[in-house]
Specification:
- The complex is a heterodimer of chains A (about 400) and B (about 230).
- Chain A has two domains: about 1-115, Immunoglobulin-like (Sandwich); about 120-125 and about 135-400, paralog of FGE (formylglycine-generating enzyme).
- Chain A has six helices and 22 strands.
- Chain A has helices at about 1-20, 205-210, 225-230, 255-260, 270-280, 295-305, and strands spanning about 25-35, 40-50, 55-65, 65-70, 75, 85-90, 105-115, 120, 135, 145, 150, 165-170, 175-180, 185-190, 195-200, 265, 335-340, 350, 360-365, 380-385, 390-395, 395-400.
- In chain A, the strands form six sheets. Chain A has a six-stranded antiparallel sheet. Chain A has a four-stranded antiparallel sheet with strand order 1-2-6-5, with no helix packed on it. A four-stranded mixed sheet of chain A has the order 20-19-17-21, with helices on one face.
- The longest helix of chain A is centred in the first third of the chain and has 21 residues, at about 1-20.
- In chain A, about 45% of the residues are buried.
- Chain B folds into two domains: about 40-125, Immunoglobulin-like (Sandwich), CATH 2.60.40; about 140-220, Immunoglobulin-like, CATH 2.60.40.
- In chain B, a hairpin with a 4-residue loop joins β12 and β13.
- In chain B, about 5% of the residues lie in helices and about 45% in strands.
- Chain B has a six-stranded antiparallel sheet with strand order 3-2-9-8-5-6, with no helix packed on it.
- With about 230 residues, chain B is mainly beta.
- The longest helix of chain B has 6 residues, at about 1-5.
- Chain B starts with a helix and ends in a 10-residue tail after the last strand.
- Chain B is globular, with a radius of gyration of 20 Å.
- Classes of the chains: A alpha+beta (about 400), B mainly beta (about 230).
- Chains A and B meet through β1, β2, β6 and β7 of A and α1, β1, β10, β11 and β16 of B.
- β7 (about 105-115) of chain A pairs antiparallel with β10 (about 130) of chain B.
């Protein structure tokens, strides 16, 4: 009996030790400003976790006991999808609200977290404001796993605030998928970095909240050109993905939302990212996982507003979400993509950038007046960057550094 | 929640030891690389630093010399010894930053038969709260009044990613210039401006990484203590 208790005790200890060993841990945090070279602050740390594990790192900063709040664009480096080892974060204190005085007792606290599933940004609040950003983590009661859906927040469609003054984004994991035409598609494509994707197409009301112009409906914002969203090649300096990278015109939508929220990573998706987030792990004709051809129009009608069931833009989030809880990735409005368009070619490989120069940008996913074939998961077309059709809008993504 | 609290790691302590083969004659010691990018510095989190080495078999004695801006230390070993516990500073938290040059010289009865060198920086910012200056127009930013430890790191700029060495030139306007060459691309260096023969005035600092185009420049002033006049 005694032996049994000892064995059980040893097993318990072993299990406890095993559990602890699997938990990610951060140690050896150092902070130092690059004086006298610049005001940037280097934050180094060591992450210990399983070799294949990836975590996000939540950074809290203090001056003495006073908590500091930073806009997200003040931080860069190893904060998202971090693997084990020595890591490095850079803080630009000039981008914070604390530029009137020295921070004489500055310190940081780093916490490893599971990557959140959703990110909610209050568009009415300025960068760094209290409760400006909320994250929803796995295990949250709002998340449901059923059928083909995993950790999906269906309740996001129950309150219009999430399609008007707030912006909800879903974490999209890095991964490899096949894209292009055909069921299943065959062009192997790898996206090496996680990113966030808007749950809905950006709405009129959200556009109004940021830009102060236009309508107030929770329907997709349409009639906007690529240049309205990011800026034009004729700007000075020229805004020309991919030559100018993620730089955008300050007065454009992306410029304004970055300024307002302090989130530097807001942008359009590349067309590879757009197809990835649309398919959400499926290889079917539409994103339901079953459809095989354009004859499956009854399936399409359950997923999207298209020519067969609609005659105009509709409020977002009324059709069935894809596996990752993203709505209207087919139909409703065409969605502008970041890159120049290849025409009838889909580029694969690792982190494809689209055509590097061109005259036409990519639009993806079909729209309310598209045919059943033009609403398949691989669907894309092209338009000049100044075009502003009433059937064209966009979906915001947040690129992670 | 408790577990999460345990994970939380406040900016705590660090001594930084440089030299890929810090006091190891035959093979590199296991390094705790605090920042991957920082290849030659290891970080420890105590003022008690265990220096370890392999004894030179031709030696009959050894001398460990530690020289920093704030003082020097020497220890003699007349028997085979492979480690030495050095308290880099007295308190748990250092009162000032410093950079130390460490030299372990092996001798037989008549001659030097080998030597190992290393460098170690004490960075107060790694032991707790640090001062961060986010004020763009701050005059205090450009003033230096005491000995300082200056960081350098090629990874600050993509243009210097392939650098293999670094160089810091300190030039007093109208006076002497000192060129500091580093065999590594990331670390810290000490500038002993107090009692270092520099005097008062304006200093131009130029940090470069030979073979690359990247240059970092700074202008610092050492004001004469007690003679600052401020006009409103």
């Amino acid at each position: 009996m005694k032996t049994t208790r000892v064995l059980i005790g040893m097993m318990a200890v072993f299990m406890a030790v095993s559990a602890v060993a699997a938990d990610p841990a951060i140690t050896d945090v150092t902070v130092r400003q690059r004086w006298p070279w610049s005001r940037l602050v280097d934050i180094d740390y060591v992450l210990t976790c399983d070799a294949t594990q990836r975590v996000d790192v939540a950074l809290s900063a203090y001056n003495g006991s006073t908590a500091l709040s930073f806009p997200l664009n003040a931080l860069s480096g190893d904060l998202y999808n971090v693997s084990q080892g020595g890591k490095h974060v850079v803080l630009d204190p000039v981008k914070t609200a604390y530029t009137n005085d020295l921070l004489t007792q500055f310190r940081v606290s780093l916490t490893p977290t599971n990557p959140p599933v959703y990110m909610i940004v209050d568009l009415t609040k300025s960068a760094g404001a209290s409760n400006q950003i909320e994250y929803i983590y796995p295990g949250d009661a709002r998340l449901a796993t059923e059928g083909r859906w995993t950790n999906v927040w269906f309740g996001v469609t129950n309150d219009q605030v999430y399609a008007t003054t707030k912006l909800v984004l879903r974490r999209v994991p890095a991964g490899t998928f096949n894209r292009g035409t055909g069921v299943p598609p065959t062009i192997s494509t790898t996206l090496t970095r996680d990113f966030y994707a808007g749950v809905f197409e950006l709405t009129e009301a959200q556009w109004y909240t940021i830009m102060g112009t236009g309508g107030s409906l929770a329907a997709p914002k349409a009639g906007v050109s690529y240049n309205d969203i990011r800026g034009a090649t004729t700007n000075s300096p020229s805004i020309n993905w991919y030559t100018s990278g993620y730089t955008v015109e300050p007065a454009s939508f992306m410029g304004r939302i970055r300024e307002k929220t302090g989130i530097a990573g807001f942008d359009l998706p590349t067309d590879a990212q757009s197809e990835y987030l649309c398919r959400a792990g499926t290889t079917s004709y539409y994103y339901d996982g079953q459809s095989v051809s354009s004859t499956d129009t009854n399936i399409l009608s359950g997923l999207a507003w298209w020519f067969g069931n609609n005659a105009g833009r509709r409020l977002v989030g009324q059709k069935a979400a894809n596996n990752w809880g993203l709505y209207d990735t087919l139909g409703n409005v065409h969605e502008w993509c970041l890159n120049w368009d290849y025409g009838g070619t889909w580029d694969g490989g690792t982190d494809p950038l689209g055509l590097l120069t061109g005259s036409y940008r990519t639009l993806r996913g079909g729209c309310y007046d598209s045919s059943e074939a033009a609403c398949q998961s691989c669907a894309k077309l092209q338009a000049g960057p100044t075009g502003a059709g009433n059937n064209s809008g966009f979906r915001v993504v947040r690129i992670l550094p | 929640m408790k577990m999460r609290d345990r994970w939380m790691a406040f900016a705590s302590a660090a001594l930084t030891l440089t030299g890929a083969a810090a006091f190891a004659a035959d093979s590199a010691p296991t390094l705790v690389d605090a920042a991957c990018r920082n290849k030659h510095w290891t970080t420890v989190y105590s003022n008690a630093v265990t220096l370890a080495w392999n004894w030179n078999t031709n030696a009959t004695s050894a001398t460990l010399a530690i020289s920093g801006m704030g003082g020097t230390l020497a220890a003699n070993f007349v028997t085979v010894t492979s480690n030495y516990l050095w308290h880099a500073f007295a308190q748990d938290v250092p009162t000032a930053e410093d950079v130390y040059d460490l030299t372990l010289t092996f001798s037989n009865n008549t001659a030097v038969v080998g030597a190992l060198t290393s460098r170690l920086a004490v960075v107060t910012g790694a032991f707790g709260p640090v001062t961060v200056n986010p004020v763009a127009g701050s005059g205090a930013w450009a003033k230096v009044k005491t000995n300082v430890v200056i960081p350098y790191d090629a990874s600050w700029s993509d243009a210097a990613t392939n650098a293999v060495s670094a160089q810091l030139v300190i030039a007093k306007v109208g006076g002497l210039a000192q060129t500091n060459a580093f065999a590594d691309v990331a670390g810290y260096t000490g500038w002993k401006i107090r009692n270092g023969g520099w005097g008062y005035g304006t200093f131009d600092l130029t940090l470069s990484f030979p073979g690359t185009t990247n240059v970092w420049m700074a202008e610092l002033t050492r004001p004469m203590d007690g003679l600052m006049i401020r006009v409103r």
